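Quick one, tokens below. Sequence please?
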């Protein structure tokens, strides 16, 4: 496929399918919702860039099988499970060594993580916005992604996986989404640790 077209890394999608297998009936329900997609992903070379439409189909399959809330939670679990795979392990460990398990510092890792998995899918930025708060923003989303509200919301799963990695309780909220402008903003909030409060 053309290098300029929005795409998703095949190894990431294959890792998601493997995580779904380990997540019990809910994970199997997502796989069963689009068996043709599962076969296509499993057959693909691991280093291939897949059309982003395949990622959209996976998000839609999760929504059909589980409903919006459970689907988004399951996708966050899939992303967290990937932190122990070859694609992510060294990168995640390096980020933790650099930033520590402070979500406000580690959130700067998210745009780099997205760049490993997605190509041509917008420009991502992230920063701490206060004690126990951070903002994740995207601009220049391709029209087919900007118009897909469920896919945009599903990208917040990366923030949920980050909070889980840092062992903090919190939430990720889609605070703004402008399909025409190709932009969105997520707000991350968590219970700040004593160390974080003292440092800021």
């Amino acid at each position: 496929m053309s290098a300029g077209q929005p795409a998703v890394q095949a190894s990431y999608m294959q890792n998601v399918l493997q995580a779904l297998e380990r997540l019990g009936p809910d994970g199997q329900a997502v796989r069963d919702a689009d068996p043709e997609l599962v076969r296509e992903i499993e057959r693909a070379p691991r280093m291939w860039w897949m059309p982003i439409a395949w990622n959209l189909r996976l998000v839609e399959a999760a929504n059909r099988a589980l409903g919006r809330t459970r689907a988004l939670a399951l996708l966050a679990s899939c992303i967290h499970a990937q932190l122990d795979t070859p694609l992510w392990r060294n990168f995640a460990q390096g980020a933790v060594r650099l930033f520590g398990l402070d979500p406000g510092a580690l959130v700067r890792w998210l745009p780099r993580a997205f760049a490993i998995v997605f190509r041509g899918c917008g420009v991502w930025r992230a920063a701490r916005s206060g004690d126990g708060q951070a903002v994740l923003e995207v601009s220049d989303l391709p029209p087919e992604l900007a118009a897909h509200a469920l896919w945009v919301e599903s990208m917040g799963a990366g923030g949920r996986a980050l909070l889980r990695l840092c062992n903090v309780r919190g939430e990720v909220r889609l605070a703004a989404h402008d399909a025409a402008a190709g932009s969105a903003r997520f707000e991350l909030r968590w219970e700040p640790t004593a160390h974080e409060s003292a440092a800021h």
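Residues 119 and 190 are 29 Å apart (CA to CA). Strands lie at 7-9, 49-51, 118-119, 123-130, 133-139, 170-178, 183-190.
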